[in-house]
Amino acid sequence: MQQYFVAGQAQDVVIITDKDTIKHMFNVMRLTENDEVVLVFDDHVKRLAKVIDSAEHRFEIIEELDSNVELPIEVTIAAGFPKGDKLEFLAQKGTELGMAKLWAFPADWSVVKWDGKKLAKKADKLAKITLGAAKQSKRNVIPEVTLFEKKAAFLEELEQFDRIFIAYEESGKEGETAILARELSQMKAGEKILFIFGPEGGISPEEIETFESKGGLKIGLGPRIMRAETAPLYALASISYALELMK
Amino acid sequence: MQQYFVAGQAQDVVIITDKDTIKHMFNVMRLTENDEVVLVFDDHVKRLAKVIDSAEHRFEIIEELDSNVELPIEVTIAAGFPKGDKLEFLAQKGTELGMAKLWAFPADWSVVKWDGKKLAKKADKLAKITLGAAKQSKRNVIPEVTLFEKKAAFLEELEQFDRIFIAYEESGKEGETAILARELSQMKAGEKILFIFGPEGGISPEEIETFESKGGLKIGLGPRIMRAETAPLYALASISYALELMK
């Protein structure tokens, strides 16, 4: 069944006001009286709803659904600005894999230089992608996207996390395999974790030092070299496997 | 250090004859006498080699390297023909994530219809992608690509596997989470496993029955709906996590 995210709190009767949502519901999907959809409001609960007036875009809530597909921990993926459309790729695939937030920052070895204007445009585009992917993968939450113009602003946010992992290629090459598995086995539901990934060139030694000084742990993600946009998918799938499939 | 795959067996002195390899070595990378590279022959062992004659493309093997980045089990990914360039995507990302072989077959619900000519062309393209990705991710093995024109030919190959998993969306929705973790915990090094994924529309009930009759187990890959091309990456990352990071 089609799922839509609706800003605001759930009420017994809801009028949809967002233009894109209305367009998709009534022009693309051609919803008509008594058709049912799933609506997700700001409380992240899925609710079955039925059209009671298609001209006025009015729905009646039928019931709450017992469907929560969110990871038991809140995972933020932070990537050093990568080239091209790799963030777009990450926005889509990361949403399918359960990411809570997508952050990106200008890393020392980022090749691209994005100014405020470019970042605002890119953030808009990424938000559209996470919204679309969240609908399609039936998420309860739309991953928030934040692009930091300055690395300092990103660093200030690190203290809010329970654990910080630094995906470090050299750790993988050196055969470091144990830390992520150990940490995931100790994770408690609701914890907030941050995974930091470098751009194509990797994370600079100074950045490693900074992240470590803020509590970051260097981890390996297996022995194979992965591209910048592939490693976050590995991390998210591992978290799901450890906390959802092995539970 | 740059890595190249070379057909044949290793000898003390090797002359490179493959045109693409020569071009990359001597035109792109501009190798010259005493420059070192890693060569991987048919035995999948990495060897350090040094240029002794750049005009004749002649190398001397210096030593075997103790670097094996292959998964401890041999994982074949089989996908129902998906739309567009999703197989190309899978060829690249699957290689980074340790896949041993990439297979694809015409599934009941495949939208695309590819004839023998198209398949041969596509297989060529995919082989180039797996080769490139295998070099970049420093694999010991280039994943083989096989595109089956008839489903019957694919089905005949199923008996060679120790375990067959059917990635079944409905299993995930119903909350099936235990089987893959249980099976991976029992896996022995060297086993051959097959993961079957449907095209965008999924696997038909008749196909499920056929795969089950050949020993396939339906598994869930977590509660979120993933696109056809994302689910195989989840599976490969989970296998790496279970068998390489948790070992």
From TrEMBL, chains A, B:
The EC number(s) this enzyme carries: 2.1.1.193
Keyword terms of this UniProt record: Cytoplasm, Methyltransferase, rRNA processing, S-adenosyl-L-methionine, Transferase
Function: Specifically methylates the N3 position of the uracil ring of uridine 1498 (m3U1498) in 16S rRNA. Acts on the fully assembled 30S ribosomal subunit.
Protein name in UniProt: Ribosomal RNA small subunit methyltransferase E
Reaction catalyzed: uridine(1498) in 16S rRNA + S-adenosyl-L-methionine = N(3)-methyluridine(1498) in 16S rRNA + S-adenosyl-L-homocysteine + H(+)
Residues annotated as transmembrane: none
Domain of life, source organism: Bacteria
Main location class: cytoplasm
SUPFAM superfamilies per the UniProt record, alphabetical: alpha/beta knot, PUA domain-like
Pfam family, one: Methyltrans_RNA
Domain (Ribosomal RNA small subunit methyltransferase E methyltransferase) ranges: 70-239
A single GO cellular-component term on record: cytoplasm
Group of enzyme by EC: transferase
NCBIfam families: PRK11713.1-4, RsmE family RNA methyltransferase
Gene Ontology molecular function terms on file: rRNA (uridine-N3-)-methyltransferase activity
Domain Ribosomal RNA small subunit methyltransferase E PUA-like: 17-63
Family the entry assigns: Belongs to the RNA methyltransferase RsmE family.
Lineage of origin: Bacteria, Bacillati, Bacillota, Bacilli, Lactobacillales
Swiss-Prot/TrEMBL GO biological process terms: rRNA base methylation
Intracellular or extracellular location(s): Cytoplasm
Coiled-coil region(s): none
Keyword Metal-binding: no
